[in-house]
Amino acid sequence: MRTLVISDSHGHIANLKHIMGFVKKYDISAVIHAGDWNTIESVKTVLEFGVPLYTVMGNADIDEGMEEYLTLNTKGFDRDFLKIEIDGRKIGIIHKALINDKRFESLDVLISGHYHSKEEKMVDFVKFVRPGAVINGVNFAIYETENNSIEFISEKYD
Protein backbone atom coordinates (compact mmCIF):
# COMPACT_ATOMS: atom_id res chain seq x y z
CA MET A 1 0.00 0.00 0.00
CA ARG A 2 1.28 3.45 -0.88
CA THR A 3 0.89 6.48 1.37
CA LEU A 4 1.57 10.07 0.33
CA VAL A 5 3.71 11.81 2.97
CA ILE A 6 3.77 15.61 3.18
CA SER A 7 4.53 18.31 5.72
CA ASP A 8 4.84 22.04 6.25
CA SER A 9 2.41 23.23 3.60
CA HIS A 10 2.01 26.60 5.38
CA GLY A 11 -1.15 27.47 3.46
CA HIS A 12 0.39 26.97 0.02
CA ILE A 13 -2.76 25.74 -1.77
CA ALA A 14 -1.28 25.66 -5.29
CA ASN A 15 1.53 23.29 -4.28
CA LEU A 16 -0.89 21.10 -2.31
CA LYS A 17 -3.22 20.79 -5.29
CA HIS A 18 -0.32 19.88 -7.56
CA ILE A 19 0.95 17.24 -5.13
CA MET A 20 -2.50 15.78 -4.62
CA GLY A 21 -2.66 15.34 -8.38
CA PHE A 22 -0.22 12.45 -7.89
CA VAL A 23 -2.77 10.43 -5.89
CA LYS A 24 -4.01 8.53 -8.94
CA LYS A 25 -0.60 8.31 -10.65
CA TYR A 26 0.95 6.58 -7.64
CA ASP A 27 -2.18 4.67 -6.56
CA ILE A 28 -2.18 6.39 -3.16
CA SER A 29 -4.37 4.86 -0.43
CA ALA A 30 -3.81 7.42 2.36
CA VAL A 31 -2.18 10.77 3.09
CA ILE A 32 0.01 11.61 6.09
CA HIS A 33 0.67 15.28 6.89
CA ALA A 34 3.21 16.03 9.63
CA GLY A 35 1.84 19.43 10.62
CA ASP A 36 2.10 23.14 9.82
CA TRP A 37 -0.98 23.38 7.64
CA ASN A 38 -1.46 27.03 8.70
CA THR A 39 -5.02 27.22 7.36
CA ILE A 40 -8.16 25.10 7.42
CA GLU A 41 -8.37 25.79 3.67
CA SER A 42 -5.17 23.75 3.24
CA VAL A 43 -6.76 20.78 4.98
CA LYS A 44 -9.89 21.10 2.84
CA THR A 45 -7.72 21.04 -0.30
CA VAL A 46 -6.31 17.64 0.65
CA LEU A 47 -9.66 16.24 1.78
CA GLU A 48 -11.24 17.13 -1.59
CA PHE A 49 -9.32 14.22 -3.12
CA GLY A 50 -11.24 11.67 -1.02
CA VAL A 51 -8.21 9.85 0.40
CA PRO A 52 -8.03 9.09 4.16
CA LEU A 53 -5.96 11.74 5.95
CA TYR A 54 -3.84 11.23 9.09
CA THR A 55 -2.25 14.30 10.64
CA VAL A 56 -0.88 16.17 13.63
CA MET A 57 -0.67 19.87 14.34
CA GLY A 58 2.48 21.91 13.93
CA ASN A 59 3.74 25.03 15.66
CA ALA A 60 2.22 27.24 12.90
CA ASP A 61 -1.28 25.73 13.09
CA ILE A 62 -2.95 28.64 14.83
CA ASP A 63 -6.02 29.08 12.60
CA GLU A 64 -9.08 29.42 14.84
CA GLY A 65 -10.98 26.13 14.88
CA MET A 66 -8.10 24.13 13.33
CA GLU A 67 -7.95 21.48 16.06
CA GLU A 68 -11.71 20.91 16.00
CA TYR A 69 -11.78 20.76 12.19
CA LEU A 70 -8.98 18.17 12.09
CA THR A 71 -10.68 16.12 14.82
CA LEU A 72 -13.98 16.01 12.94
CA ASN A 73 -12.75 15.61 9.36
CA THR A 74 -9.69 13.34 9.30
CA LYS A 75 -9.26 9.58 9.60
CA GLY A 76 -6.72 10.07 12.38
CA PHE A 77 -5.61 13.15 14.31
CA ASP A 78 -3.69 14.05 17.42
CA ARG A 79 -2.43 17.42 18.51
CA ASP A 80 1.14 16.19 19.17
CA PHE A 81 1.82 12.54 18.29
CA LEU A 82 -0.32 10.10 16.32
CA LYS A 83 0.36 6.38 16.11
CA ILE A 84 -1.47 4.51 13.36
CA GLU A 85 -1.28 1.18 11.60
CA ILE A 86 -1.57 0.88 7.84
CA ASP A 87 -1.23 -2.48 6.12
CA GLY A 88 0.40 -3.94 9.24
CA ARG A 89 3.03 -1.18 9.54
CA LYS A 90 3.21 0.87 12.74
CA ILE A 91 3.60 4.51 11.78
CA GLY A 92 4.22 7.47 14.07
CA ILE A 93 3.46 11.04 13.02
CA ILE A 94 4.88 14.03 14.87
CA HIS A 95 5.70 17.57 13.84
CA LYS A 96 9.01 18.09 15.63
CA ALA A 97 10.59 14.84 16.75
CA LEU A 98 12.82 14.13 19.67
CA ILE A 99 14.66 11.10 18.34
CA ASN A 100 15.17 9.21 21.61
CA ASP A 101 11.55 9.03 22.70
CA LYS A 102 10.17 5.78 24.16
CA ARG A 103 6.92 6.23 22.18
CA PHE A 104 8.83 5.50 18.97
CA GLU A 105 10.37 2.14 19.98
CA SER A 106 7.67 -0.09 18.46
CA LEU A 107 7.33 1.85 15.20
CA ASP A 108 8.32 0.77 11.71
CA VAL A 109 8.56 4.39 10.59
CA LEU A 110 8.39 7.84 12.21
CA ILE A 111 7.22 10.72 9.99
CA SER A 112 8.27 14.21 11.09
CA GLY A 113 8.22 17.74 9.70
CA HIS A 114 9.23 21.17 10.98
CA TYR A 115 12.73 21.47 9.49
CA HIS A 116 11.65 21.80 5.80
CA SER A 117 14.35 19.36 4.70
CA LYS A 118 14.23 15.82 3.33
CA GLU A 119 15.78 13.12 5.44
CA GLU A 120 15.71 9.37 5.84
CA LYS A 121 17.79 7.52 8.41
CA MET A 122 17.60 4.61 10.82
CA VAL A 123 17.50 5.50 14.51
CA ASP A 124 17.44 2.57 16.93
CA PHE A 125 15.70 0.23 14.44
CA VAL A 126 13.10 2.85 13.49
CA LYS A 127 13.06 4.46 10.04
CA PHE A 128 12.98 8.25 10.55
CA VAL A 129 11.60 10.29 7.63
CA ARG A 130 11.13 13.96 6.87
CA PRO A 131 9.42 14.50 3.49
CA GLY A 132 10.56 18.09 2.90
CA ALA A 133 8.29 21.12 2.90
CA VAL A 134 5.34 21.69 0.58
CA ILE A 135 5.90 25.44 0.88
CA ASN A 136 9.32 25.02 -0.79
CA GLY A 137 7.76 23.52 -3.93
CA VAL A 138 6.47 20.13 -4.93
CA ASN A 139 8.25 18.09 -2.26
CA PHE A 140 6.73 14.91 -0.91
CA ALA A 141 7.45 11.27 -0.28
CA ILE A 142 5.74 7.99 -1.03
CA TYR A 143 5.81 5.44 1.79
CA GLU A 144 5.45 1.85 0.58
CA THR A 145 4.20 -0.38 3.40
CA GLU A 146 5.03 -3.64 1.61
CA ASN A 147 8.79 -3.15 1.98
CA ASN A 148 8.91 -0.22 4.46
CA SER A 149 10.53 2.02 1.85
CA ILE A 150 10.48 5.74 1.10
CA GLU A 151 10.74 7.46 -2.27
CA PHE A 152 11.33 11.21 -2.25
CA ILE A 153 9.81 13.24 -5.07
CA SER A 154 10.64 16.85 -5.94
CA GLU A 155 9.35 18.64 -8.97
CA LYS A 156 9.33 22.16 -10.28
CA TYR A 157 6.30 23.44 -12.14
CA ASP A 158 4.97 26.74 -13.44
Automatic annotation (TrEMBL):
InterPro entries listed in its UniProt record: Calcineurin-like_PHP_lpxH, Metallo-depent_PP-like, MetalloPDE_YfcE-like, Phosphodiesterase_MJ0936/Vps29
Which keywords does the record carry?
Metal-binding
Which superkingdom does the taxonomy of this entry point to? Answer: Bacteria
- Identify the SUPFAM superfamilies for this entry: Metallo-dependent phosphatases
Q: Name one Pfam family in it.
A: Metallophos_2
Main EC class the enzyme belongs to: hydrolase
Q: Which cofactor does it need?
A: a divalent metal cation
Q: Which GO terms describe its molecular function?
A: hydrolase activity; metal ion binding
Q: EC number(s) of the enzyme? A: 3.1.4.-
Give every Calcineurin-like phosphoesterase domain span: 1-136
- List the NCBIfam families: yfcE
What protein family is recorded?
Answer: Belongs to the metallophosphoesterase superfamily. YfcE family.
The name under which this protein is listed is Phosphoesterase
Instruction: Please give the organism.
Output: Candidatus Woesebacteria bacterium GW2011_GWF1_40_24
